[in-house]
Amino acid sequence: MTHHTLKIVALAGGVGGAKLADGLARILPPDNLTIIVNTGDDFEHWGLKICPDLDTVCYTLAGLANPETGWGRAEETWQVFENMRQNGGADWFRIGDKDVATHLERTRRLKEGQPLSQVTRDFCRAWGIQPTVLPMTDQSVATIVDTVEQGELAFQEYFVHKRCEPTVKGFRFDGIEQAEPAPGVLQAIREADAVVFCPSNPWVSVDPILNITRIRTALAGKPVAAVSPIIGGKTVKGPAAKMFSELGIEPSALAVARHYGESISGFVLDAVDAHLADKIQELGIRPLVVNTLMKTTSDRQLLAQDVLHLIERVTA
Ligand code: GDP
Ligand code: CA
């Protein structure tokens, strides 16, 4: 089977997810790629509905993302933010002028009763994004981080306001029991030859998606390849390694593979972690050791190729 006949569903959070999704989008025909995005980070700020992971994925696929920050828009200006601050408005979450237009229009449409999946589809069309991007659900799900010092914190409170400093005890996804997969999600999984877990935070980016019962059920028995977000025991960005440590697990690519366990059949780990490949094999998971650090567009594309090669092997 050549790559171009593979139909792929990718599960993604923000930064790490968006980069691999972009690599996959560069080598697969648009009809063969559906990206299902975490919405557990979504929250309200300045009276606007913000969907950080959806926006990071869409801005990245559209070539509109800020490459330095990993969030927000390139060539951003901050007039609204500075004036909000002068007005005494909340200034712990930065929203640029270009970005704010996204949240204004999304909030207006949601208030009109349009589902998030439809708003996302319209934005994708407006921004020239060809693969299908779907929120995991149209209902609201809120990731809650339980911490030693401050008890339960709403995700962005923990992530942005407290800069991930409190010690993590656990996670809860409020509303997950009632959450149905967004329209198109189950069909995409059913039609997919394989599923990719992008190198996103396992605890707070991929797990919320997997905790929607009907998504988890649909994934059972599908070939799944995950890419490690942990390289040499560290994250490229964000708190995933810190979360593993605070939960009493030594952070490593192996810990990520164990975390996903029986839900994956293949696992991509970085060359610096090559010594862990045998242990992953012992888990009954097929390892692939390659460069997984995506610094350039070409890195994204090469990693996407590697993931598809692994999928061919696990599905052969
Ligand atoms: P967030 O929602 O913006 O926090 O983003 P994700 O959950 O999608 O991604 C966060 C994870 O991406 C972190 O654990 C990073 O280590 C990982 N990550 C970021 N860039 C890369 C990369 O180039 N390669 C790999 N393997 N992981 C990456
Ligand atoms: Ca996120």
* Residues in β-strands, percent: 15-25%
CATH fold-level label of the domain at 8-43 and 130-143 and 175-315: Rossmann fold
The major sheet is characterized as: 7 strands, parallel
The strand count comes to 14
Instruction: Give the CATH superfamily of the domain at 8-43 and 130-143 and 175-315.
Output: CofD-like domains
A few lines on this structure:
The protein starts with 7 loop residues before the first strand and ends with a helix. It has 13 helices and 14 strands. Helices cover 41% and strands 19% of the residues.
Report on this structure.
- The chain is an alpha/beta fold and 316 residues long.
- The chain is built from 13 helices and 14 strands.
- The protein is globular, with a radius of gyration of 19 Å.
- The protein starts with 7 loop residues before the first strand and ends with a helix.
- The model has no long low-confidence stretch (mean pLDDT 97).
- The structure holds guanosine-5'-diphosphate and calcium ion (CA).
- Guanosine-5'-diphosphate (GDP) binds at residues 12-17, 19, 53, 56, 199-201, 205, 227-229, 231, 235-238, 240, 292-294.
- Guanosine-5'-diphosphate binds at residues 12-17, 19, 53, 56, 199-201, 205, 227-229, 231, 235-238, 240, 292-294.
